[in-house]
Amino acid sequence: MAWNRVAVVGAGLIRFGELFEQSYEQMAAGAFRAALASVDKGFEPSRVEAAFVATQRGTLWGQEGIGGNTVPSALGIAGIPCTRIENACPSGSDAFRVGAMAVASGVHDGVLVIGVEKMRDKSSEEGLLARAAAGHPVFTRGETAPVLFAPFATRHMHEFGTTREMLASVAVKNHHHGVLDPYAHFRNEVTVEQVLASPPVCRPLHLLDCCPQTDGAAAVLLVNAERALELTDRPVHVAGFGVATDHPYLHEKSTFVGLPATTRAAERAYAMAGIGPGEIDCAEVHDCFTITEILDIEDLGFVEKGKGGVASIEGETSLTGRIPVNTSGGLLAKGHPIGATGVAQLVECWWQLRGEAGERQVTTRHGYALQHNVGGRGSGVSVVNILTNRR
Predict the structure, then answer these.
(1) Residues with active-site annotation
(2) Would the pLDDT of 132 be above 90?
(3) CA-CA distance, 346 to 380, in Å (whole number)?
(4) Cβ distance 325 to 176 under 8 Å?
(5) Of 102, 170, 234, 277, which is the most buried if we count CB atoms within 10 A?
(6) What separation, in Å, do the N-terminal and C-terminal C-alpha atoms of the chain show?
(7) Residue whose C-alpha is closest to residue 55's, from 77, 16, 28
């Protein structure tokens, strides 16, 4: 188990949105400052021995040197080892996993994990996301992210009677949570009727079933758990993590009512943490589309397979529900700056476990929070991290 080796002592982010006025490096610096300021007893930047930068900038912009090469200088910590990590939508959560292993191994006593992404400086007409989705010249022709997820929605509807109203309830819930989150891209309520009436994108997904393209940055500070109490009286520990992969193309899929990579990653994270899904108090999961959250809560073991839509519309995943999901507003409301997304989800888990989530605060009876991303071509990679406030 990793929880007795690695502690999260600081976490912070900048407000997500269309941040045309900020450069890539300015966003990173803002997130770093927020993480430093959150450490209860103070944290000198010189304590950062290494950095792991999560970003899709190389894939999206063709600037592979940006990130690992420039971020330390922008943060005033030039000279340290720095590694850029790209692993599709789970880039930030995987950077966290790698950073935790660097500390747990004893190689470093303190590391920075930071996710940064500029999504709005180029239009979709310039092929921003098409670059990330590139694959076989025939198999992937005409595919976009909604095209990849829509078949899961239609199959789930066919097998389990899931309705568009159930899908819409996910957007309604997450936008409500986003209203309560000062860092969210969109802070407005939506109704089921508005989701159903929004423009169609790819049947049965409509505009408000889809997350936005967003700019943002988030950062966490990891230290050897033996040093944590020097920095805070309320450390949050890394309890477990897991990563798994699946086939990248739709014609290779074994199922369209689940994402096997998520199931496998979750099994590995639960095993490392020594717990089951019933001990998770809250979760930040990958809701790039409304159907994705429904698949997630099933694949993570929070509800039975086929019951995700019912659980969503009945409020089981709301702030006061049995298993609060995406208290930050999720990708649907908070936004999805790819490299920063997973790190920002971990910031929300850290706040929840420390009782610092304000109006979004939930009851943490068991002391565990889960963070999850899935992505890549055909949702072919998933990462799950579990944090705990138990010592």
Answers:
(1) 89, 336
(2) no
(3) 21
(4) no
(5) 170
(6) 13
(7) 28
Per-residue tokens: 190: 């939506």
- Write the class of the CATH domain 6-125+210-388: alpha beta
Q: What's the rounded Cα separation, in Å, for the pair 285 and 283?
A: 6
pLDDT digits (tens, 9 = 90+) for 60-116: 555 566 666 789 999 999 999 999 999 999 999 999 999 999 999 999 999 999 999
What pLDDT sits at residue 9?
A: 98
**Nearest-CA neighbor of 5 among 242, 230, 220, 226?**
226
CB-based burial label for 151 (10 Å; 0-12, 13-18, 19+): middle
d(CA 295, CA 77): 41
Q: In this structure, what token pair is assigned to residue 147?
A: 């095209």
What does the alpha-carbon distance between residue 229 and residue 145 come to, in Å, rounded to a whole number? 44
Distances (CA, A) of 95 to 282, 291, 327, 328, 363: 21, 26, 22, 20, 28
Could you give the CA distance from residue 31 to residue 350 in angstroms, rounded to a whole number?
Answer: 15
For the record, the structure tokens of 385 come out as 């991290």
What is the chain's mean pLDDT, rounded?
A: 93
Q: Which residues pair with 83 in a beta bridge?
A: 52
pLDDT per residue over 194-207, tens digit each? 999 999 999 999 99
Find, among 87, 142, 134, 105, the residue nearest to 222 by Cα: 105
Going by C-alpha positions, the residue among 301, 277, 296, 295 that lies closest to residue 285 is: 296
Domain residue ranges in the chain? 6-125+210-388
Q: Which pLDDT score, from 0 to 100, does residue 232 have?
A: 97
With contact defined as beta carbons under 8 Å apart, do 383 and 94 qualify?
yes
d(CA 152, CA 169): 17
Q: What is the pLDDT of residue 111?
A: 98
Instruction: Classify strands 236-245 and 200-202 as parallel, antiparallel or unpaired.
Output: unpaired
